[in-house]
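Final report, results section. Input specification for complex C-07:
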Amino acid sequence: MSQTSDNNGRPHAVATGEPVRLGVVGLGTEGGMYAQFISAGRVPGMRIGAICDILSDKQQQAQEYGVPFYTDYREMITSGTVDAVVTTVPHYIHPEVGIYALDHGVHVLVEKPVGVYTAQARELIEFAADHSELIFGVFFNQRTNPLYQDLRALLASGELGALRHTTWTITTWWRPQGYYEQSDWRATWGGEGGGVLVNQAPHQLDLWQWLCGIPESVFAKCQYGFRRAIAVEDEVNAMVDFGDGATGTFITATHDLVGTDRLEILCDRGKIVVEDSRRVTIARLNQDERAVSDAMPMEQVREMFKGEFDPASLVTTEVKEYDSVWGQQHCEVLRNFAAAVRGEEELLAPGGDGIHGVRLANAIHLSSWTGREVALSDFDETAYLKLLNERISAEGKFEVRPL
Amino acid sequence: MSQTSDNNGRPHAVATGEPVRLGVVGLGTEGGMYAQFISAGRVPGMRIGAICDILSDKQQQAQEYGVPFYTDYREMITSGTVDAVVTTVPHYIHPEVGIYALDHGVHVLVEKPVGVYTAQARELIEFAADHSELIFGVFFNQRTNPLYQDLRALLASGELGALRHTTWTITTWWRPQGYYEQSDWRATWGGEGGGVLVNQAPHQLDLWQWLCGIPESVFAKCQYGFRRAIAVEDEVNAMVDFGDGATGTFITATHDLVGTDRLEILCDRGKIVVEDSRRVTIARLNQDERAVSDAMPMEQVREMFKGEFDPASLVTTEVKEYDSVWGQQHCEVLRNFAAAVRGEEELLAPGGDGIHGVRLANAIHLSSWTGREVALSDFDETAYLKLLNERISAEGKFEVRPL
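Structure output:
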């Protein structure tokens, strides 16, 4: 596709000090929340440029913000009222809106997931790569959490050595039946493309890989409509292989009223435990655990068996608590995105990073459908899309996706 | 085999009030510990009858207990000095000692695991079934822990409803390299038949199934000699399927200096979390979680999203702490076994229960070797033994096991 920007093919340039005019595509729960944050002045360097929703009765709500309202995102994008858009629309539509905006010189902040399946996510990502003069971000608000930023820096520093094992149990995504019945597209194969994997857990699928690396393969069991009357998965168990003997387990569900949020990362020279995305315990060794193991005399081993010596006494433990303010993360993503549009900052979550979460989610589905371990390094996206389309067809409510 | 008991085919009958004379087969770490407990009077209704070890230099140590010493367990069993034996010998030999004792009218308490592979475990269990006049127990000392007894009673009562999901991360089995180098048979395929699965984790493999039921299948990844110079596994990741949508994950390792011990059991009407085999949190709902989900108005869902309503507030939470005294569990197993021999109590851990842990451990190995999910309900024990024998052959230190 050639670029046919409304401003003669040049991207919307926003000068230093000037606010970025954001077009909100979709004035639903998320879009409405972002509009409120921005109009309340919680996002420095950004203002609302226009609002778009296919439901014309949203116009009244949009008028509160004193900006133009559109029912067609194409019109809004070419209207000259916005420098950038955020896509708070059903997941399947993210790539099409993103590509249209980029093709018309408008910067894009795509809601997670970047796409429902890797083929469409790649299409957007590759299109954006050909329009590198435009900013293309993905809304991974949890990357702005100082807790995960600190962990990412710690792990990237190499201080804790190579990864051995990691588990994340994240079942705090409790959703009652009524939640699923809000819209026809929710929790369907054709409208949403999955359940907890594509709606709630993309945050953790991103953070996990951001912290621990990209797995080589996955084996998974998903429970479809297990404790909710939905077609898609309300529970996921996945076991991944990172290579070099490092492995991990990812567990998520929307039916655990007393959800667990516990992340463990075991490395050669230390261990991280994160509870409730809030409390971090870092145990550090001053040498490789294997050196400790090799040097320990049998006398000390015998003391250990009698409970007279605790090997955990060989580590130094640090505990940190992190506070979080509701909405702060979303405002920070919007602020960082606006700063990136003005050329002042790097994006915290470049859109291209979005492929990892989509691929892992797709591979988890595929493994659960086939009963086999699935490779991520050369993921068979055609096999996935065929089986996804079978489910969309069986549902009989939405069109299948082009292969 | 026919019974050729030394007392004319009749089992050793021990009268009420009389202590059971226990023969200790193997005066190593475990056997020595049991002998000390018994001689210190910590096991009511039991005394040491004789001691046996193939190492004749253990005779001096045995003399401290003032009982006959043998280097051949057969001689001890037929000597008339013991009513029962405990088999603290390398795992492969448990079945042969057990069968010999039962065949000579002597009661048997087999150390865990009952056998290394299901074929030999079954042989012992079936032999014992044909000698039901004799007591045949397995040394699952952790079943005596009041914490697990209470949980077993709670789950068996049905109060919490059907199982949805369970995970046990039990990496508190830290063992340094020197531990593995204590004996030639340790951590070898031919001498021990596995690593953490056959030596340390059998306790949890038993408890987990005792509490949650027997899985139908398992997929697993084991790391062999990952962070220890051993042939067998020092780390295990297993995902099991209990049927009816209930699944679970079991993770264990011997290389985590800051081990985790965390068991979660999620059911339809509640959730159990056990930390460090000591602290139990039980969250109870007064109805099925699904009924809560179905009844919740959207208004409350919206409040939840704003952090104004916490669904966990719908449960009643009870926290219990359990103390444990070192050795108490072992003394309790011995006491219960002696009482069973006198016909006064039921066995807490009948030997036949030992098959479940052996089969799950074998299936975990087999899955990790083949990269495939393995059925437990019709476990292919020949396929397992063939692949085990390949590893024993490659080691070149021990004889392969008869197919």
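Chain A has a mean pLDDT of 94. Chain A touches chain B through 64 residues (CB under 8 Å). This concludes the modelling results for the funded period.
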